[in-house]
Amino acid sequence: MGKQKFYVVWKGHKTGVFDSWEECKEQTHGFPNAVFKSFLTRELAEKAFNSDSKEFVGVDIFEPTLSKEELALIGDPIEESISVDGACNVVTGIVEYQGVDTKTKKVLFKQGPFDGGTNNIGEFLAIVHGLAYCQKKNINIPIYSDSKNAMSWVKNKKVRTSQEKNDKNIELFKLIDRAIKWLENNEYSNKVLKWETKAWGENPADFGRK
């Protein structure tokens, strides 16, 4: 059985927040230009009902599926931070990465495209680039990544990828080698933290290509 949804009807025979699709359908069926939308929580549904429908209809609204207790344990992301992300086309193997200001989403650095990569390689390079960026700017703020593998590679200063070096990805592997050397030769106090997608939605640096 699926999770209960709550339905907001802004324009219908009757308006309000309804607990089932049947109730929503009853209020919207046959009503000209009815406006309605479903939500996962009553809290957001009531907020939406008391707002302009244009802020919600046709807009991708993130709703955490974790319990209030789980959300409380995770807490909120640190706004004064850098979020990084890597993206890879699984068909072509073209990879790129970027880092953004978590609060403003301003792009701080972006690299690529590179041939013959993987998503984890892009994520790894993004984290190391973020650390080097902070060192150069002399700022001690956290770096968020949603890749556990890349975070592990950074911690262990070793890339464990099944991707083989070839004529197409020589430049990419040069970047990997340079990133590893940077980790071996530099100390940093910036924390590398996991971006909690289930609690906070997509990483601010996400390329939006899922």
From TrEMBL:
<comment type="similarity">
    <text>Belongs to the RNase H family.</text>
</comment>
<protein>
    <recommendedName>
        <fullName>Ribonuclease H</fullName>
        <ecNumber>3.1.26.4</ecNumber>
    </recommendedName>
</protein>
<dbReference type="GO" id="GO:0046872">
    <property type="term" value="F:metal ion binding"/>
</dbReference>
<keyword id="KW-0460">Magnesium</keyword>
<dbReference type="InterPro" id="IPR037056">
    <property type="entry name" value="RNase_H1_N_sf"/>
</dbReference>
<feature type="binding site">
    <location>
        <position position="123"/>
    </location>
    <ligand>
        <name>Mg(2+) 2</name>
    </ligand>
</feature>
<comment type="function">
    <text>Endonuclease that specifically degrades the RNA of RNA-DNA hybrids.</text>
</comment>
<dbReference type="GO" id="GO:0003676">
    <property type="term" value="F:nucleic acid binding"/>
</dbReference>
<keyword id="KW-0378">Hydrolase</keyword>
<dbReference type="GO" id="GO:0004523">
    <property type="term" value="F:RNA-DNA hybrid ribonuclease activity"/>
</dbReference>
<dbReference type="InterPro" id="IPR036397">
    <property type="entry name" value="RNaseH_sf"/>
</dbReference>
<keyword id="KW-0464">Manganese</keyword>
<dbReference type="InterPro" id="IPR012337">
    <property type="entry name" value="RNaseH-like_sf"/>
</dbReference>
<feature type="binding site">
    <location>
        <position position="85"/>
    </location>
    <ligand>
        <name>Mg(2+) 1</name>
    </ligand>
</feature>
<keyword id="KW-0540">Nuclease</keyword>
<dbReference type="InterPro" id="IPR002156">
    <property type="entry name" value="RNaseH_domain"/>
</dbReference>
<dbReference type="InterPro" id="IPR017290">
    <property type="entry name" value="RNase_H_bac"/>
</dbReference>
<dbReference type="GO" id="GO:0005737">
    <property type="term" value="C:cytoplasm"/>
</dbReference>
<dbReference type="Pfam" id="PF00075">
    <property type="entry name" value="RNase_H"/>
</dbReference>
<feature type="binding site">
    <location>
        <position position="206"/>
    </location>
    <ligand>
        <name>Mg(2+) 1</name>
    </ligand>
</feature>
<feature type="domain" description="RNase H type-1">
    <location>
        <begin position="76"/>
        <end position="210"/>
    </location>
</feature>
<feature type="binding site">
    <location>
        <position position="146"/>
    </location>
    <ligand>
        <name>Mg(2+) 2</name>
    </ligand>
</feature>
<keyword id="KW-0963">Cytoplasm</keyword>
<keyword id="KW-0479">Metal-binding</keyword>
<dbReference type="InterPro" id="IPR011320">
    <property type="entry name" value="RNase_H1_N"/>
</dbReference>
<keyword id="KW-0255">Endonuclease</keyword>
<dbReference type="Pfam" id="PF01693">
    <property type="entry name" value="Cauli_VI"/>
</dbReference>
<dbReference type="InterPro" id="IPR009027">
    <property type="entry name" value="Ribosomal_bL9/RNase_H1_N"/>
</dbReference>
